[in-house]
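User: For my dataset I need records formatted as: sequence, then structure tokens, nothing else. Please produce one.
Assistant:
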Amino acid sequence: MHLQANAPLHPGEYSESLMPTSSIDYAEPDKPTDTSPPSCMDRYRHQALDDKTILMTPDNLVFVKLHASWEAMTYYAEYLKMRKPLRQVSLSNSQNFVDSN
């Protein structure tokens, strides 16, 4: 039986001419050669990532009373990209609390 040169191959059969010459399908990029110690900012970023989970607990919830104009607070709330809305309390509805120390 004579096979033509362009005849399709059956599963399990292979031809040396169809095999790739190189089997590398991934090349690892060069690793950085910087061996200097991490900078202060790198250490701060790493610490901030670790503290992020700690700061999100209910025990660490802190309320801050701000004495600033409403315009200033809304400006900085937008600038700091606060996720919670601010609430303006009118002076007639607010209660005065005095610490007795």
